[in-house]
Design brief:
The complex is a heterodimer of chains A (207) and B (332). In chain A, helix 3 packs antiparallel against helix 4 and helix 7 packs antiparallel against helix 8. Chain A has one domain: Serine Threonine Protein Phosphatase 5, Tetratricopeptide repeat (Alpha Horseshoe), CATH 1.25.40.340. The relative contact order of chain A is 0.15. By secondary structure, chain A is mostly helical. Chain A contains eight helices and no strands. Chain B is an alpha/beta fold. Helices cover 32% and strands 23% of the residues of chain B. Chain B has eight helices and 14 strands. A six-stranded mixed sheet of chain B has the order 1-2-4-3-5-6, with helices on both faces. Chain B has a six-stranded mixed sheet with strand order 9-8-7-12-10-11. Chain B is globular and about 50 Å long. The chains are: A mainly alpha (207), B alpha/beta (332). Chains A and B meet through helix 2, helix 3 and helix 4 of A and strand 4 and helix 3 of B.
Amino acid sequence: MDIPLTRTWVQAVAAAMDREKDHLTQLDSAIGDADHGVNMQRGFTAVVAALDGYEAAGVGDVLVKTGTTLISSVGGAAGPLYGTFFRATGKQLSGPTADAEQLAAAFDAGLAGVQKLGAAVPGDKTMVDALGPALAAFGAAARAGEGEAAAADKAATAAETGSQDTIPLQARKGRASYLGARSIGHQDPGATSAALIFRTLAEVLKS
Amino acid sequence: MKKLINAPEAVLSDALAGVAAAHPELAVDARARIITRAGGPSVGKVALISGGGSGHEPLHGGFVGPGMLHAACPGEVFTSPVPDQMLAAAQAVDGGAGVVFVVKNYTGDVLNFEMAAELAGDEGIEVATVLVDDDVAVKDSTWTAGRRGTGATVFVEKIAGALAEQGASLSEVAAMGRAVNAASRSFAVALTPCTTPAAGKPGFELAEDEMEVGVGIHGEPGRSREKLEPASAIVVRCLDAIFADQPLAAGDETIVMVNGLGGTPLIELYVAYGEVAKYFAERGVRIARNLVGNYITSLEMAGVSLTVCKADEEMLALWDAPVSTPALRWGV
């Protein structure tokens, strides 16, 4: 992973959010307040604008800038949570490149930041249910020396499975928690957008 | 969707332009997305700052002015504001005595205000936070994000704002805000859903003969869905839930708000208030002050929320103190 590739990833995430906006909003209208797609699209559109002409010295700079911009433009719970994920990840990556193991450790720091802020644990029906399995798969593949593209692909698959596994869960955090048992049977929009971010990473690293 | 707007994505900025044009006594910073008093900070006094998703007007911008808020930070419709807004507001209105963030208990609001408090602290601005969580419809707080902040927000902003105006310290103002929240309970019933401009269709569906009992101000589901009832029965439902959570005895003094959710005409709110007055009279509980109108709305949702604050003498005196804002104005 280098600086141009990191930019490409974030730009591809913006395109993915644009494409999946209605789907995310549809998921959110079932158990939330129908704005997740719109908010993520607005945030990543702002990120693309903020990165335009931004001079990064390291991979992490791009990610920290991404996180800071998300915090400033998304609102809702997703802004601080995704903002923290990218910032905390980016702060671990000062060099102009990062290998799979460095990325794995950085992502773990990102997830730790998210959990510290949002206090969600696995099974609460949140983005943690996608990020957790994704990072476990990424780390395992990285430690096995499979390289970042393979690790990202496994992470994306694990995140997608994790987001689908939120369907039978009852939400215990965020606005969906007000539904109680009525939140069961719906896929969590935050877990879905998290899976989208890792699928995009896999696609960018593959090409 | 039928709405009086130019474009869904322009609703907030267009509305802010309207607020600026209508209220020269307010300063609207369209870029920072904050509404403050035109006079700038009150030197030596604590400043109250609130904010949240838009779509609940007059909350919060309508409560900016002497005797109440110093600043409001409106987010997108039903989306919490971002930390930059609260930081800009704190920098704009801190009079050197610190600022109080009045935050309604929703995950997004809590996280964004928390980040803002950190940023403001880095700038040397002292911040105290009052979390409002008065909605008794959310029963099992252990398994949810906790009770939602609703109607009590108006009481907290009025009463703590009056205390700030008198020159009380940051800790005193925050303590009063928390006391008002602790003494307040709310419960709402929706007769129709509401539609955010961005979504374009209703957030939930209700049949012609149904109502959502215990609804939240963003259309969050309540305790149950029931067949529509007469106003008398609806009011009893709401007040039974409130009194079950905070028993009130004969002789207690209260402030009561009968609040329209946006799509219910005032005549119906007065129908409801008549029933409220009867309920209180039967129990000997005194309604010392009341508000009947639209103070914390959910776009065009039809329905009503009731908020009851068990008020002591100090709270009542602060309630009566002069206030001059677009939506609340007396004693001036």
